[in-house]
Target: DUF1905 domain-containing protein
Amino acid sequence: MKSKVLIEGYFELEKFPQKGGWTYIVLYELEKPKAYFGMMKVNGKIDNHDLVGVTLMPYGNGNLFLPVNAKIRKIISKEAGDSVKLLLTEVDAEEREEVFTESNILACIREEPLAWEKFQQLPQETKDHELQEILHFQLESKKIEKIILLIEKLKLS
Model:
């Protein structure tokens, strides 16, 4: 069965202005889903690079954004300000999973190689504490904020 196309077109890569800010694509045409803390798993392509099980995150204004990590930017040879061809499709029901799990938070950290390297060097007790701090928040925006702050803290440590 062919997956439903959610969005297809050309989009500009943007970047959060602070040091270490993420590069991303705002998807104004997609509404934030009610479930999954406003996050959504999708498959697709950016330029000719396959995207499998990537997470769209809430942008804070009812829209979603796609983080585009350094590894992907290197593969597609693009940076903030460049235009990319994007195709996103729904993830099949059997591929869907709870978004805020430890493994998904770790996947977010893994998206930033320097942060992941520093995270792996932490004592297990510290890793567990950081993950539990994120998971204990009720509001999705707070969980996302804590993930971003953790990644930034790790990159600067």
Observations:
- The chain has a mean pLDDT of 85.
- Residues 102-156 form one domain.
- Strands lie at 5-12, 14-15, 23-31, 40-46, 49-58, 63-67, 83-90.
- Helices lie at 70-76, 102-110, 113-121, 124-135, 140-156.
